[in-house]
Design a protein that fits this description.
Blueprint: H1 3-24, E1 31-34, E2 39-42, H2 43-59, E3 64-67, E4 71-74, E5 80-88, H3 90-94, E6 101-108, E7 111-119, E8 124-129, E9 134-135, E10 154-159, H4 168-180, E11 183-185, H5 190-199, E12 204-211, H6 215-224, E13 228-230, E14 247-253, H7 258-264
Parallel strand pairs: 3-5, 10-11, 10-12
Antiparallel strand pairs: 1-2, 3-4, 5-6, 6-7, 7-8, 8-9, 12-14, 13-14
């Protein structure tokens, strides 16, 4: 498997989907409810996903694809599986907020080896290959510095769909963040938060029972930029993906910042 070729295909596909999203977001959206937790899906999600599936399966017909909206496609049970989030930030697009990205990850036997995140609004794309670092569109290597603030960290929070408003763990974690962080961002586009962490724009991410379809691309990007990811208890973070219904809870930050962030969460 040529991972450099896979990265080229993924970047080209993500940027083509991004162009579709950028144009479509300027017009009227077909929006409908998705699930019982207040989530939505738009015609743009479906159009972007169709484009991405066609690009990936044309280039790699023996691969499987797990997509955010349509589920499993391609050759099931094989060694290679793509995870596709065609529009991360759908709720933002639905209210006219230009904060959204496209995410792709390629896994071998469940382990993410390639991650691509594209921001159509800024025109930037970030990509990572396991063991070979993370790159910006310019080819510059991502390596955020350790830059603590005396006013506390700037953090992003993400949680999975379906988490009840009175979930005791979510309430405890969010209260700890509100009390101790300088700012807590809730972007509704977790892949963008991962890119911001990999660039050094924010100091950390705390995730609670987040779905795995849009996690691997961003987590690999951040890890290859030098970010450390742990479970909420400080234990190892499980990177391998077994199926689309999995969830993960985690803390991610610069290795020197991670102990303080874990202690902040209690």
């Amino acid at each position: 498997m040529d991972l450099d070729l896979a990265r080229t295909v993924a970047v080209d596909a993500a940027e083509a989907a991004g162009a579709l999203l950028l144009e479509g977001a300027r017009g009227a959206l077909g929006t409908r409810a998705k699930g019982a937790a207040g989530d939505v899906v738009t015609d743009l999600d479906l159009a972007s996903e169709k484009l991405l599936l066609e690009r990936i399966l044309t280039a790699f017909p023996s691969h499987a694809v797990i997509a955010e909206e349509s589920g499993l496609a391609g050759a099931a049970g094989g060694e290679w599986t793509w995870l596709v989030d065609p529009l991360d930030g759908t709720n933002n697009v639905a209210i006219g907020l230009p904060t959204y990205v496209v995410g792709l990850a390629l896994c071998r036997a469940g382990l993410p080896l390639l991650g691509v995140v594209h921001d159509p609004v800024s025109g930037q794309t970030w990509s990572a290959l396991r063991g070979r670092g993370a790159l910006a569109s310019t080819g510059a290597r991502l390596a955020p510095p350790y830059a603590p603030s005396p006013h506390g960290p700037l953090l992003a929070w993400t949680q999975g769909y379906g988490i009840a408003r009175d979930d005791p763990t979510a309430r405890r974690l969010k209260t700890a963040l509100d009390l101790n962080a300088r700012r807590v961002l809730q972007l509704w586009a977790p892949l963008l938060a991962w890119a911001m962490l990999a660039r050094g724009d924010i100091d950390g991410i705390v995730g609670y029972r987040a779905g795995v379809v849009d996690l691997p691309a961003g987590a690999l990007l951040a890890r290859e930029a030098g970010i450390e990811i742990r479970g909420l208890d400080g234990g190892p973070y499980e990177e391998c993906v077994d199926g689309p219904g999995e969830v993960r809870s985690f803390v991610a930050a610069h290795p020197r910042a991670l102990p303080g962030l874990l202690s902040l969460l209690g």
